Input
Amino acid sequence: MSAREPQALPPLGLDATQQYRLGIMGGTFDPIHYGHLVTAEQAREACKLDLVLFMPAGTPAFKNAAEVSSGEDRYAMCVLATAANPHFRVSRFEIDRSGTSYTVDTLRYLRAYYPQNVELYFITGADAILDILSWHEAEALAKLTTFIAATRPGYDIHTAQERLVASGVPLAIRYIEIPALAISSTNLRERVRNQSSISYLTSQSVAGYIEKNELYRRGV
Ligand code: ATP
Ligand code: MG
Output
């Protein structure tokens, strides 16, 4: 691991007897928006998570790297958006790694890094939970973490649920219903490119960062 490791994963300050629930909110976060934040907060409450670690992806496995904003910009926006929530942290772990970051590798590392009394909960929206079956090493993932799958407008969580059951992969998944926010990063990028407002779709601090750094002015 790189010299950045101490900042990449936060110390949890626990004693070994205490059970601790760590949520991991993975994503590209290009940019982070209120859909991500409400998902993380609702998962935290529903599953009594002690902390949610936002994990912006390094070189995304399923997206064209050239079209994705820099890790530093995506990390900075995550920090801005989560700064006021004492239960949220942002990790540099994946953006500081070179090459493709598979969720299974990150979870393996977290599993080895934190003591056994720390339970891992990987949080996703209804679209991403279905992708899990196509993720690298779905079976190995199942042993490392419990999944929390949140409803998302435009995606049918019941279909996802049925397909996951039919797959026979023994995944532990908790399904949660959350306030519907039909917001996506793709839509935010399009809005910026078309000079439309993104106010109230993400925090003012993120909107300001996008403007100041001239992100998303061209391309999607
Ligand atoms: P893009 O349009 O670029 O794919 P996105 O809005 O889907 O961006 P991602 O970074 O791809 O954001 O998603 C990270 C995680 O957040 C995924 O698990 C996704 O399902 C979840 N998520 C994103 N937006 C919402 C939303 N509005 N409601 C519920 N979950 C969401
Ligand atoms: Mg997405």
